[in-house]
Amino acid sequence: MNEQLMRIDQKIQAMATRLSRSLDSNMRRSFLPDSSKDLRRFSAAEAADLIGVSLDHLRKQFFNDKVEIQVETDSRGRRLFTAEQVNQTRHIIAQDSRAKKFQYLVPGRRQGDKLQIISVANFKGGAGKTTTAIHLAQKLALDGYRVLAIDLDPQGSLTTMFGLRPEIEFAETGTVYDAIRYEDPVPFRQIVRDTYFHNLDLAPAGLLLSEFETETAHALRHNLQPPFYQRLALCIAEVEADYDVVVIDCPPQLGFITLSALVASTGLLVTVVPSMLDVASMAQFLQLASSLMSTIADVGAAPDWDFMKFLVTRFEPNDGPQAQMAGFLRTMFGDDVLTQTFLKSSAVSDAGLTQQTLYEVNRSDFTRQTYDRAIESINGVVGEIERLIQAAWLRKEA
């Protein structure tokens, strides 16, 4: 019997190794020449939209030599901006003494503003949680916020979307686990890493994160300090001055890891697919979350959220049952459901085949209507969340 089990174990290991090598080879083909991801350049129209000015105004800034940045041009003489150049241009326009009305173009924290920490959570897999988290983090970065993305899912899907291989690069060290573990934790800053995306850093995940669940059960019996629900918050506090917004991708379960994220957060975004099974699963999520948060509140660790919102994801407006279920959610929760929805789109899934998002792929690679519909959807979602962030900071323009 033991011999049979060993053969099965070896077979599974061989399958894992084979799949890992195949994925690694696929990544190398996708991101030549150095097998790492980089971010495409943005047209002048895209840059103007990201900055929040008209294309005509942006062109005038260059024509009048107010923006002295060497921007690459294509064969037709059209400007192509890197994300960093978009941000530099944003700051130059905002600092123009004759354009005071453009001061709002730099949206990040000001003196007295608290760090915004948004957890994206759901009890059920397949609800668009990671897809939402990475698009939210990337668009906030493009809009001028300093963003930290934290991957708390041991499966490391968010980490993988950044072009990293958790099972290879973080098999033994380098993940959030190193900073929140009970024995010899490392400074959180040591595991935060730059990404190819300007204004966006990553705290990666890997399978070792699952050890935190087991270790916390032991820690609770022995009253190890600080308690599990404070450990992530303390880590984030170490780097608080470096960021405006933190986006946390939680695992699809309500364990100790997710609870630590909820306690650390200032806002919660619950993704939900408008189907009966998903809504029923969310009802269980809310019941369990209420019970667990009540227990944590009894020890004085209740989170102080600025908002909690539901986001309808993978939405197909022409699907009658989905539209009916979305309407049901809005009837039940009213303004707690975001007005905007994240549409189900082949553009999102096709981009995901090469570990890219809508902000990384070229529009020309897709049917124009398909891409525009998808990008308008997620831009609307992020725009609504940005208004919640600005409202939390008591900004007049919010």
CATH top level assignment of the largest domain:
Alpha Beta
How many structural domains does the protein architecture include? Answer: 2
Between the first and last Cα atoms, what is the distance in angstroms? 66 Å
Unreliable spans = none
User: What order do the helices and strands follow?
Assistant: HEHHEEHEHEHHHEEHHEHEHEHEHH
Radius of gyration, Cα only, in angstroms?
Answer: 22 Å
Spell out the CATH superfamily of the largest domain: P-loop containing nucleotide triphosphate hydrolases
**Largest sheet composition:** 8 strands, mixed
DSSP summary, beta strand count: 11
Would you tell me the structural class of the helices and strands? alpha/beta
Shape label = globular
Strand content: 5-15%
Describe the fold and architecture.
The protein is built from 15 helices and 11 strands. The protein is α/β, with parallel strands linked by helices and 398 residues long. The chain has 2 domains: 42-105, Multidrug-efflux Transporter Regulator, Chain: A, Domain 2 (Orthogonal Bundle), CATH 1.10.1660.10; 116-392, Rossmann fold (3-Layer(aba) Sandwich). The chain has an 8-stranded mixed beta sheet, with helices on both faces. Strands 1-3-2 form a 3-stranded antiparallel beta sheet. Helix 2 (44-51) crosses helix 3 and helix 10 crosses helix 11 (256-264). It is globular and about 70 Å long. The N and C termini lie far apart (66 Å). The model has no long low-confidence stretch (mean pLDDT 89).
